[in-house]
Structures are given as C-alpha cells and as structure tokens.
Amino acid sequence: MKVRAELTVLPPREQARRLAAVTASSVAQIERTEPHAPEAEAALAAIRSWGDGAHLPGRYFSELIYSDDERGTLRRLSEAAGKPSEDGWNALTTATMYVAWLVYRETGEPMPSDVNEVEEDSLDLLDEQLAKLG
C-alpha cells in the first residue's frame, strides 16, 4: 500500500480515519505480545476520535507520544527495541506523530519542534513500517 498517495489527497480528518484503520493492525500486533499496552489503545482512540470530529488539541497528541510520566508511545517504542512489538510501536508512533502534525496545523497552536519536522514524507516511513508488520 502506498499510504502517502492514498492519504494526502484527503481532508485531514479523513486522513486520520484511514490511519486509524491502518494502524489498528499495529495495535493488534503490540497487544499479541504486550497484553497491557494502554498507550497503544489511547493513541489509536485519539486518532479515531479526532478523525470522527472530536475537538482534541495538539498538546493532547504530544502527550500521547511524549507523556510527562514518560509512558508515551515513544517511550514504549524504546522499551520494545529488539522485541516482537517493536515494529508495531514504531508504526503507531509514526502515525500518531503525523496526526499530531495535522491537528496542530488545524488548530493553529504553536507546534513543538519535533512535530514541526513531520510532513507528508512521514507517510513513506509509515508505509515501510507497516510492510514489516506483514
């Protein structure tokens, strides 16, 4: 699948809805080896909710990635290095970062520098990550 070609022609919230469907497989892969992964469930739920019209601020998505209690998806990705769930965390974190970028652009909130670096080419990376999941 060429995620970038499929998504970038769509409005931002429709992109999030499609990403939720695509990244659900990442969450399923994570949960097969890590039955307690609330960060994965929260990130997927936020992507779905925003895609369905919820008014979530960009900061909410940033917290899902880099939470103050250090339990965001990026932390879980670093903990999963070399484990079966690593590819799932990688794809989920990339998708969450991309949706955060869409949200910040829509809301006009000041965008953190790490999110500001995200652009549509992140979808190419996501495509590669999803291919590893099979």
> What percentage of the residues does DSSP assign to strands (E)?
under 5%
Q: What's the number of helices?
A: 8
State mean pLDDT (0 to 100 scale).
92
Uncertain segments are none
Order of helices and strands: HHHHHHHH
Helix content: over 70%
Please describe the structure with a list of short key phrases separated by commas or semicolons.
mainly alpha
Structure report:
With 134 residues, this protein is mainly α. Helices cover 70% and strands 0% of the residues. It contains eight helices and no strands. The chain has helices at 3-7, 12-33, 38-51, 58-65, 73-79, 86-107, 113-116, 122-133. The relative contact order is 0.18. The mean pLDDT is 92.
Q: Which helices and strands occur, and which strands form pairs?
A:
Elements: H1 3-7, H2 12-33, H3 38-51, H4 58-65, H5 73-79, H6 86-107, H7 113-116, H8 122-133
Helix pairs in contact: 2-3, 2-6, 3-6, 4-6, 5-6, 6-8
Structure in a nutshell:
Helices cover 70% and strands 0% of the residues. It is built from eight helices and no strands.
